[in-house]
Design goal:
The complex is a heterotrimer of chains A (about 300), B (about 425) and C (about 400). Chain A is mainly α and about 300 residues long. Chain A is about 70% helix and about 5% strand. In chain A, a hairpin with a 2-residue loop joins strand 1 and strand 2 (about 155-160). Chain C has a domain at about 15-290. Chain C is built from 17 helices and two strands. The chains are: A mainly alpha (about 300), B alpha/beta (about 425), C mainly alpha (about 400).
Amino acid sequence: MPLILATSFAELKDIFLMQGFAGFSLFAVFLLMALGLAIIFGQMKVINMAHGEFLTVGAYVTVFLSHMVVNHAPKLLPYYFPAAIVCAFVVAFILGYIVEIGLVKYLYNRPLDTLLATWGLSMILQQACRSLFGAREDTATLPEWMMGSWSPSEGLDIPINGMFLLALAIVMVLLVYALMYRSRWGLKVRATMQNRAMAGAVGINTKRVDRVTFALGCGLAGIAGAAFTTIGSVSPSAGSLYIVDTFIVVVFGGAASLLGTVLSAFTIAQSQSILEFFLTGVLAKIFVLVGVIILLMIRPQGLIASKVRR
Amino acid sequence: MLSRRIPQWLQGMLRGAAMAGLAAVLPLSAHAADPKFPTAAVNTTGLAVTDDVVTVGQLHSVTGTMALSETGSVEAERLAITEINKAGGVLGRQIKIVQEDGASDWPTFAEKAKKLLVQDKAAAVFGCWTSASRKAVLPVFEKENGMLYYPTFYEGLEASKNVIYTGQEATQQIIWGLNWANKEKGAKTFFLIGSDYIWPRTSNKIARFHIERYLKDCKVVGEEYYPLGYTEFQSLINKVKLAKPNCIYSIIVGGSNVSWYKQLKAAGITGESLAKKKQILLTISTTEDEVRGIGGENVAGFYACMKYFQSLDNPNNKAFVPAFKAMWGKDSVIGDVSQAAYLGPWLWKATVEKAGSFDIDKIAAASEGVEFKGAPEGYVRIHKNHHLWSKARIGEMKLDGQYNVIAESPDLIEPNPFPKGYQ
Amino acid sequence: MHTLYNRALGGRSGTVGLALLCVLLFLIFPLALDNFRLNMMSKYLSYAFVAIGLVLCWGNGGILSLGQGLFWGFGGYCMAAFLKLEAARNIAAESGSDQIRALTTVGLPDFMDWNQITSLPYIWYPFKSFSLTILLVFVVPTLLAYIIGTAMFRRRVGGVYFALITQALCWIMEISFVTRQGWTGGINGITDLRTCLGWDIRTKSAQIILYFLTCGLLIGCILIGRFILSSKLGRILVAMRDGEDRVRFSGYSVSKLKTFIFCVAAAMSALGGALFALNVGFMSPKLVTIEPSIYMVIFCAVGGRNSLIGAVYGAILVSYGKTYFSEMFPNLWYFLMGGVFILVTRFFPDGLAGAVDYLGPMLGRKLFSWIGRAQANFPAAVVPIPVEANEGR
């Protein structure tokens, strides 16, 4: 490549650093998307095709708040974003709770049917967003500190929103880990998911566990949606762009394993980002998908298999 | 009329209600048939034309991924038709709209086009946005002999008797803009970027030919395509940084636009930083409509080559913009395609009046030379090949999401959908 | 003769159900619908082929594929390629038209010309011949299904995982078809198909003939499906759906059985795709991607995943509902369709066929019980057991 030869070594180093970070921020995106689904699909076995729409809901909550802040309290602009994330979580959580009560709870023993029902749900949510907010794309006004790049040296620019996403993703993973594997409530969840009847017999309110777990997964999607307003678009159909990628990350990681999801998000993100750099965007996507399918054939249980007896 | 105080969601609902209600309300004011133009004489082929009403179709996506782009066109066409009705209609007949949803799905477009022509007997159809939807409906319009007014700037390589193209074909938008970048900004190296479908690919092909054959000492240093709806552009941005082109030539469309510009800003590429390095970013796909979703702060200082900008300073536009806002809300913006969509009904009216008939064949024959002096972009005229003569303009993006028009082609550019020397 | 009656027609109730469907398709629709609507009905029916295939591999075999659009699409693209080449040859004959002015290489499909392809790619050579095209319509998707099936089922990839992998395959196909636009027409697809062997497929009479052809082949597919399901193989299939390990332990090769039924479903889908290209006159990657593939599963679910005839009704009803709702309420039809899917899965897990079966006895057994009992000669033990059961946790 004469192009690269013409460039100085220092510049090349910068590009590689930035390219490495590009992989990390893609990793953060995948991880945030997949975290909620890893609980809903991985633990509860509900194929939630409306997961992307919960993301959209979170994004719209952020946009709504940002408009409120800009119009009524411009002074708060630098600080509103964390509040927006919390609100996105709460709204998506409540919505998820309602959906569980109204729909999903009837379908636990028919996982493939959840796919169809939640597909219907995703259509309804999409159209609801369209009727409420208009079909056009919208944008959240971001605080100044979240925009632009951090430039430690001339020619090296690390995106601030990327760093924010990465930090958020790490915090969320730690929180979910603590909740699922280090808390009493997580113990109840895992017990219910492994053996519902037995869990009920030892006095766990399994129905309540179901409701809260599902809502929690949706809430995490809401957080991801809020975070994605920093890098992408907000439109009623934005969520549907993410859904297939999300499922692939979760399945590839091994459905019931949090560590698996993290690893798979990392593997897929880095390979996609590297391939994009050396090939083209389209080819990178195709190669990554084919690679994932082949690996899944060799290892159908995913990267990290859960130790549940089959 | 919707004030900023009304929350966004309520505006959305009102707008939706307005759109739904409008079709029902419009034909209320009945006129008697114009004695000069009896129905039997102006409609010999069984179109839906009565003594006081003429039915037209409107075929855009109001659901699905393309709804965000096509909404502007729907609104502009509605405005034009309302204005025409207020001014007495076409040959004394009020226009009634049958709206169909293409649902961002090309086969649905074909199905609905057929329905509009075969079942509703629409005298004209205003619609389609993507090239794919136009290609899907084109055989239907040619077979059933309908008339389509197509608003989007597109790749060219097409001229049909049954379509009037009110947007620019590729050469009208590309060649003058590249010359401008070369002359005014001294651009010698170009990096071509696009979404992966026919319009960006064909446009970039024409751009590449022009750069390599007709601009002195210029070359293309990269050409990249990403799938529609793609949201991760950091790798691409790094490649651009490595190639250091004088001009980043971007034809990214739809939702991808937002990610592309937000990530550019996050990677330290802004209008300001480019200017320091004597680089520019020139796009032919980002209108005011898209900037609304991207946020002006992410694009300030970039350039776009279009035929229309909302900030255009001429009397027609000064009347058009407030009228549009009065109908669709104070916050609404008007992009190049919306303006082109607005031309459709007016051009159709002028053509029908010139031909003295609603018959498709007569309209098709009469189209050549039809002018519209009230066009917000200034003045347009239909060419023999059913495209419009129009100017090209360069706008610089501003923080508030509007464009500063900084250059304009001196004359109307002739549409040339089959450019010789570019194939 | 008697066995044929029992096996292919499904005994008395099966025959009645089939006869009613035939009356509807061959008499009522052609008489009641105008040409435009009848053509749309052919379009719906070309989706019904996929739904029938899904009844075989999902309802009875327990294999949920979210990638049937892939096979449907390959069938359709093969047919469309043949028709496009013929259209291109014909355009070359008419000089002075707009199309001919647009072309620099006469006789080549227009989209290749737009992409500066100056000679026909080798992949397109087989589509010069009609008989070879018909062969490829079936061979390409079946072979693909065979490869996917062998690779997946031997590794015991099943249930949800299989569904998601086939979905990813669909996506790969869409992306690659879109990006190789010189060969495939890109996102526009292959449009403007006019004649088939010199016969103008856009005329009214051609569309009516094609409608009857579609109906005839559809009935043929139902009979083949019945035949498979009522054979020993069909019973093993159901056994496999309800307890895969037990069948395996009984000495049957589960993966081969699954691959077989998956291939049959793929071939039927491909036939539907080819008929779609003939009926509608174009093919596009939008039709083979994830969303239509999910719709195909929904046709099957709404009609009843165990009922071959129900699947046809499902395809007709859902497609018609989509058209009707979107014509009546362009801004709201997503709500209505979404609501229907939720209600059906929530209250009628066995779809229309199940609903008829359930409500039938109450409303008079004689009159209404025909649809759901289309496969009445099945052992009574065929109670739909959740497909997940074969994961056997």
